[in-house]
Amino acid sequence: xFAKFDLELQEEELNKYCKRGLSLHNxxxxxxxxxxxxxxxxxxxxxxxxxxxxxxxxxKEWFPKINxxxxxxxxxxxxxxxxxxxxxxxxxxxxxxxxxxxVWKYADELIEKxxxxxxxxxxxxxxxxxxxxxxxxxxxxxxxGALAKMMNTTECVVFVNTHNSVLNISNRHLxxxxxxxxxxxxxxxTLLQARPLEEQRLSVVVEDKQDExxxxxxxxxxxxxxxxxxxxxxxNQLMNDTKxxxxxxxxxxxxxxxxxxxxxxx
Length: 266
Description:
7 strands; 51% helix; alpha/beta; globular
């Protein structure tokens, strides 16, 4: 990870840039589904639906095929908007995103499959509450580790802040959320050590809302504010300074570099 940002997302502003709303949403779904399949295939050796935990393979690298530049953290309630955002960044600005919904969906799917696993069918009974809790805790611990690795692999972590993800979005001194996933990702982002951009790029290998829960993380000044218009400014400047870049990933790198410079990341 090289940089981290807070993006205050407003639907009206997103729609202004997303003139092809439906097609962008569908493209976002394609990105999500593609990453989800890779995610499932890569984590399958670690944990099966019968509850066995293969510790011998834990040290292997996760996500060898997901070559994303930006990690998008968001509320489950904002998933549709974030899919459009991920598609916009990819299609127009060449920036490839990993959407953390991939992890949430897989966690729920694994736990649901455990309810109908071959072991449960053989015993002709549903797993008891203790077994379900034990299995769920294994799933969540594994996926939290996977999230940390993915955040560290991407060069840029962006928290999509809306009223669904942040309780008091105007409070610049405290980040408060009802989502344990967002809290966990926010905390990990503050703990991960930032690496020089060149080193970061060389290292890349190709909720149910519960009002009674509140998770608080003190505001970290290293999170810089980000707006959608920053991508547009970077893109326009890039087009003015150079000929159009055919390689989308290279274009995405240049767009991000422009943002890093203008946000004083380095």
